Amino acid sequence: MNQNLFATFARRMRERGDADFITTRQGRGYRYDEALAIITRLAGALIELGVTPGDRVAVQVEKSPEAILLYLATLRVGGVYLPLNTGYTGEEIHYFLADAEPALFVCRPGDAENARSIAADTGCPQVATLGTAADGSLMEAAERATPRDDIIERDDNDLAAILYTSGTTGRSKGAMLTHRNLGSNAATLAEVWRFSEEDRLIHALPIFHTHGLFVACNVTLMAGASMLFLPKFDADVIFEEMPRGTVLMGVPTFYTRLVADERLTPEITANMRLFVSGSAPLTAETHRAFEQKTGHAILERYGMTETNMNLSNPYDGERRAGTVGMPLPGVEYRITDRETHESVPKGEIGMLEIRGPNVFVGYWRMPEKTREELLEDGFFVTGDLAMVDERGYIHIVGRDKDLVISGGYNVYPKEVEQVIDELEGVHESAVIGLPHTDLGEGVTAVVVPEPGTNLDEAQVLDHLQGQLAKYKQPKRVFFADSLPRNTMGKVQKNQLREQYQDTYR
Ligand code: MLC
Ligand code: AMP
């Protein structure tokens, strides 16, 4: 049997016929049958542009229904979808194209010239454009193309997507996800979160990460539900749309912003059946305040780019504030000693490790990194510290990796430090995450200047412009004569976090 995830989606899409798939507030969207028709054309265009099975299709475009059709067409032709954050700079894109060697790079119409030069530099043979109004050279090619309604055969373990996640060493790693990884997780989530054809998901997340792309869109497709596509999170629009929606998926920042708004009431949320939170810790305080104001207990779940979703609070039963629930069906976990990988006694804190059909097959062209994190017995070392309580609910209590999560986006300090350290007059720097009322954590730099230089905050920030995506750039830069170090010479970031703890709250 063809294990191409798109074969499963296509069956569901055909069954749903003229039901809505994606809608927008501008009235531009696709019914399921319309989406299928465009996907056959896009598939034809991809093949004509030279995409063959196993080829990567790198995509940096604004959110639009067509971007999802492109994702589905890529699966259909056996390609490997590689979405890129719209905030990445040319320098960042250069790295991704050089590393992933895609057969095609689809960019925003306004970026075409720059994209062509990066493509030429990195050996990427084709560039096409896709705008937000069904415009761009890709859609033109689809109109001309011979439609392809065959679905290229894929094996369970063939790649469906590569998503880059920042790495502790500063080099981003491409997480290789198979058709089985994505398909098993989508089927499980649709079932445990009780998705049905009646659902209308309010989709306000970006579509270049696991949360907005796989959790939101794959689950919608599995269930034959519909999605309202919003360009970004905007509380005014969410309040307007909630009476016609049934589910919202968001990062904790969505919920802290909604809770702070007096429009959040039981009446406005009356049509909604589910609020899901993930990608970063939701505070117990926000969970309780949301329930108090609406009667809805937010369902918090835990996942990663490398694994899709692993743990989830129950649909029925208590959704415990401050916990991420239990393993999803088919997913195993253990909490271990980080050196020996032996399980620690119940109730103690240890490294969270995950095994299951959802766990990726490795990092693109990084066998050593893969071996470090994906153990021989199939468990993946998440880098998150966890403990399980007496009722079996898992708590994420911290991170054993030097990672900042700002508004649901991951920032690896090393990457930012490396760019800061290149600035003339900088001796060294330490990048930390500090508690931030809106974003959860705020990226912050502590810089040690070379003696006798006169650096200021604006100079450091200016230097980062154009080199790092905006969300990675520090919200504040502080200066110090030296960084606190332990006897091994390691920078004591805890001390810095303590010293500057009140910066954003
Ligand atoms: C925007 N900015 C951010 C930022 N988002 N800075 C730091 N961190 C962020 N997350 C910048 C903007 O460029 C702008 O800069 C300024 O901050 C204010 O922007 P804003 O208008 O307040 O931001 P907004 O557009 O409202 O975005 C905030 C947000 C958004 C939280 C809604 O970042 C978001 O949708 N995040 C979701 C991320 C996500 O999908 N994560 C899932 C990863 S998958 P200036 O200077 O231009 O004003 C994963 C696995 C799993 O983790 O388990 O799900
Ligand atoms: P990413 O690499 O962007 O997929 O981010 C994955 C990381 O997000 C995990 O390793 C966790 O640190 C964090 N994360 C995701 N969901 C949660 C959650 N519900 N609570 C706490 N942290 C989370």
TrEMBL record:
The keyword Ligase applies. InterPro entries: AMP-bd_C, AMP-bd_C_sf, AMP-binding_CS, AMP-dep_synth/lig_dom, ANL_N_sf. GO terms for molecular function: long-chain fatty acid-CoA ligase activity; medium-chain fatty acid-CoA ligase activity. Transmembrane segments: none annotated. Residues 415-490 form the AMP-binding enzyme C-terminal domain. It comes from the Bacteria. It is an enzyme of class 6 (ligase). Pfam families: AMP-binding, AMP-binding_C. Its EC number is 6.2.1.3. Keywords: Ligase. Residues 9-364 form the AMP-dependent synthetase/ligase domain. CDD domains: MCS (cd05941). The keyword Ligase applies. SUPFAM superfamilies: Acetyl-CoA synthetase-like. Belongs to the ATP-dependent AMP-binding enzyme family. This is Long-chain-fatty-acid--CoA ligase. The lineage of its organism: Bacteria, Pseudomonadati, Pseudomonadota, Gammaproteobacteria, Oceanospirillales.
